[in-house]
Amino acid sequence: MRFETSTIKDIAKALGLSTSTVSRALRDRYEISDETKKLVLAYAEKVNYRPNPIARSLKERRSYSIGIIVSEIANNFFSQVINGIESIAYAKDYHVIISQSHESHKQEKLNVEHLASRSIDGLLIALSSETQDVDYLRALYAKGLPIVFFDRVPDNFDTHKVIANNFKGSFDATEHLILSGKRTIANLTSSQNLSTTKERLEGYKAALAKHHIDFNPQLVKFCQHGGMHSDELEQAVKALLPLNPDGIFISADRLTTGFIMALKKTNPEIVNKIAIAGFTNSNLVELFSPSLTSVKQPAFEIGQVATELLISMIEAKRPVTEFETRVLDTQLVTMQEI
């Protein structure tokens, strides 16, 4: 049996009105009387009328869909960002299409090009850890595809960007370790390509400098894939432990949880001898063992702000030429506060 839905023509015929009158009433146009609007809306509700999104997109030359690229949906931070994106997108009648790069530049590019071929109205993207060349994004942007970057952003790309205060978050975490009496503090971090890595490394260095602790580059270990591969993490742990750190600042969500697992697997006897402070948006921090001080990012709000900025670009009547980088504060959460 073929499923059939009521159309504007059906409503118009049933009520003895023109299709244009019914269409305007459904869109709450000022030229239609309140009485007629009530009549049309009541009947539309009765027959369970729903607008045809395909007809709407053809008429307005828009798909009412937004593409999203993240490295991994299972990452606590990115899943919360997506929730924020959806809260704004759905409220404004946009659908979202989510793709994962898995920290691969090649996969990121394929996903973006596929989304663009499906005529998305705009793109929200956090760059993969491998991405250094964003020329393919510049080409799509130049052709008129609105793009807003969040979290992991490129330099010299004139569009809106939404990030956390990475410098402050890493400074606060590192200083907390220092004030707890730690002096040999390691830094486990992500790919050197990422803007987040650079900003968090600077915050770590600044906290050391403030407390007159020399920066030791050997105490900094980069994980190209941000903790997605367990051997990468285990190698970093093995490289750090001979340096006898009494504290460690970890600058990415998956790295933080992954480090604890890798430490338990490779050196369980020293698990409780190293103080840990790291970026994580996990809701289960209080269950972690050993315990850690966490830097929480306003992930949901980042998603909301990025989506609002993107939709403002999509719906702008004229080309947008002025852009901003929104920086949202992080929160340091110690075990005493949980």
Could you name the key traits of this structure?
single chain; 338 residues; alpha/beta; Rossmann fold; 3 domains; 6-stranded parallel β-sheet; 6-stranded mixed β-sheet; 12 helices; 43% helix; transcription regulation
Task: Decide which structural class fits the backbone.
Answer: alpha/beta
CATH topology of the largest domain: Rossmann fold
Return residue spans where pLDDT drops below 50 for at least 5 consecutive residues: none
Radius of gyration: 25 Å
CATH architecture of the largest domain: 3-Layer(aba) Sandwich
Order of strands, main sheet, comes to 2-1-3-4-5-11
Chain oligomer state: single chain
Spell out the CATH superfamily of the largest domain. Answer: Response regulator
Overall strand count = 12
Distance between the termini: 56 Å
SSE sequence, one letter per element: HHHHEHEHEHEEHEHEHEHEEHEE
Number of domains: 3
Fraction in beta strands:
15-25%
Give the number of helices: 12
CATH class of the largest domain: Alpha Beta
Q: Roughly how much helix do the residues carry, as a percent range? A: 40-55%
What kind of sheet is the major sheet?
A: 6 strands, parallel
Q: Can you tell me the overall shape? A: elongated
- The averaged pLDDT comes out at 89
InterPro entries: Cro/C1-type_HTH, HTH_LacI, Lambda_DNA-bd_dom_sf, Peripla_BP/Lac1_sug-bd_dom, Peripla_BP_I
Domain HTH cro/C1-type: 7-50
Keywords: DNA-binding, Transcription, Transcription regulation
Protein name: LacI family DNA-binding transcriptional regulator
